[in-house]
Amino acid sequence: MLSRSPASSPTGESLIRLRRRAAKIAAILGERYPVTRLPLKHRNPLQLLVATLLSAQCTDAQVNRVTPALFTRYRTSEEFAAADPLAIEALIRPTGYFRQKARAIARMARTLEQKFGGIVPGTMEELLELPGVGRKTANVILGGIFGVPGVVVDTHVRRISQRLGLTAHDDPPKIEQDLMRILDRDQWSDFSLRVIYLGREVCRAQRPQCPTCPLRRLCPSAEFTGRPPWMRPRPSARGSRTRGPSSR
Ligand code: SF4
């Protein structure tokens, strides 16, 4: 595996060099963000699953504002499955796309009841059987609940992995594969979370803070102030919001 060429690296580095640079990046991020904690508040696997579904096209802070009332009213997948969709919509409205999200939660809860007896399963294959659950959500659950290493590719991880030249892909599952190939397995979960922290604080989509970024000496995009030639311009926020919640 190590001898395989990093076909998707936009920097042209060998896989060995890419792995070395990724290890240095992971070490610096580890120093900058020694504590990694899931930003979505939850008390059990079901709550994390629902909160992650709500986080599509929404900030974690906004999700955390609506979930206390939601989780007080609905405590089990059975209760979510039997809930009046309008009642769920009213509680989650501030997260956006509330109708689609209410339907997604109900579908997920019904399948959880029917196939898994209301217990959130602990494997990627089983989690992907739940409607609305994609690899990103599954990796959040696997890492956050079951301690199974996984690379979570959200909007921050996608953008920053591209800026760092760790992938040339735009498709989250392919970015996930690229990062899994160049990072040690025990780094997968923490690396994702730390990149998300960096994306909120320093390497923002607009106006990344390259001159003060702790990764600037390892980042090929620093000289392009975060807009390297290998990255395609993304659709505007207005344009992207017309598509509905992104795949999880
Ligand atoms: S140097 Fe700039 S583009 Fe690179 S990770 Fe830091 S903020 Fe992002």
- Strand-residue fraction? under 5%
Second-tier CATH architecture of the largest domain: Orthogonal Bundle
CATH class of the largest domain: Mainly Alpha
Radius of gyration, CA atoms, in whole angstroms: 19 Å
CATH superfamily of the largest domain: Helix-hairpin-Helix base-excision DNA repair enzymes (C-terminal)
Provide keyphrases for this structure.
disordered N terminus, 52% helix, Endonuclease III, domain 1, 12 helices, 2 domains, mainly alpha, single chain, binds iron/sulfur cluster, elongated, Endonuclease Iii, domain 2, 248 residues
Walkthrough of the structure:
The protein is mainly alpha-helical. It folds into two domains: 15-32 and 151-240, Helix-hairpin-Helix base-excision DNA repair enzymes (C-terminal) (Endonuclease Iii, domain 2, Orthogonal Bundle); 45-146, Hypothetical protein, domain 2 (Endonuclease III, domain 1), CATH 1.10.340.30. It is 52% helix and 0% strand. α1 packs across α11 and α9 packs across α11. The site of iron/sulfur cluster has 15 residues, from α9.
What topology emerges from the helices and strands here?
Elements lengths: L14 H18 L12 H10 L5 H14 L3 H6 L2 H8 L5 H19 L7 H4 L7 H12 L8 H9 L8 H11 L5 H14 L35 H4 L8
Helix pairs in contact: 1-11, 2-8, 5-6, 9-11
